[in-house]
Amino acid sequence: MRHNPERLPATMMRSLLALSRLIDSLNERVGRLAAWLVLACVLISAGNAVARYGFNLSSNAYLEIQWYLYSTVFLCASGYTLRQNAHVRIDLVSGHLSPRARAWVDIFGALFMLLPACAIILWYGWNAFLESYRIGEMSGDAGGLARWPIKLVVPLAFLLLILQGASETIKRVAFLRGWVGEDFTGSDGKGRLEVPGLGKRGREQ
Q1: Phi then psi dihedrals of residue 146, to 5 deg
Q2: Which residues contact 73 (CB under 8 A, 6 or more apart)?
Q3: Are 21 and 197 in contact (CB under 8 A)?
Q4: For residues 80 and 30, is the Cβ–Cβ distance under 8 A?
């Protein structure tokens, strides 16, 4: 069976875009879950205040679970935030560039800044979790919580961020190859690049 060399890049691009959609869906779900954790954090905080000042009851565990939830929200929602292109940007230069130039800037930033930095934090975060779990690390305060669960959140969160960084890179490569439109240039003011709307080349393949 002969392979058409012109079809191989198309097949690969379709597979990468399918992977990108899966990653986007994963981080969308994690982001929605993180939003519910905010509510849980507020309820626990309010309950702790009522118990402490109304009934003179309190525990360091209640305080620490608030910190754990708060940290989990901000860490695990980082991939979702990247998906929404809601991280802070300084657009003094890129705001004046063409869509293709901005795509190249994003690809460069992901490959040489975002992904390597996240990989380093993931590596050290995972080792820190393993050590914490091995020794059964606990809070230094009386009645506090185990430390290893929150330390596990760090590598998991940066894994999600790495996956989303890869997804955003795939979509920008697809844009440069004509597979998706220019949605990421900011028609909604957020700069999201949606995979499902294929560009001219994607529709023709």
Answers
A1: -65, 145
A2: 34, 37, 38, 41
A3: no
A4: yes
Give the span between the Cα atoms of 184 and 20, in whole angstroms.
14
Chain segment 133-169, per-residue pLDDT in tens:
999 999 888 878 999 999 999 999 999 999 999 999 9
Tokens of 109: 């930033």
Length of the chain measured in residues: 205
Contact 187, 201 (CB under 8 A): no
Residues with Cβ within 8 Å of 163's Cβ and at least 6 positions away in sequence, in order, are 23, 26, 27, 79
DSSP for 131-156 reads HHHHHT-B-SSTT--BSHHHHHHHHH
Does the pTM surpass 0.85? The reply is: no
DSSP the chain: ----TTHHHHHHHHHHHHHHHHHHHHHHHHHHHHHHHHHHHHHHHHHHHHHHHHHS---HHHHHHHHHHHHHHHHHTHHHHHHTT-S----TTGGGS-HHHHHHHHHHHIIIIIHHHHHHHHHHHHHHHHHHHHHT-B-SSTT--BSHHHHHHHHHHHHHHHHHHHHHHHHHHHHHTTSB-SGGGTTTSS----SSSB-HHHHH-
Q: Which of 76, 42, 87 is nearest to 154 (CA)?
A: 76
Residues 6+ apart with CB under 8 A from 153: 68, 71, 72, 75, 76
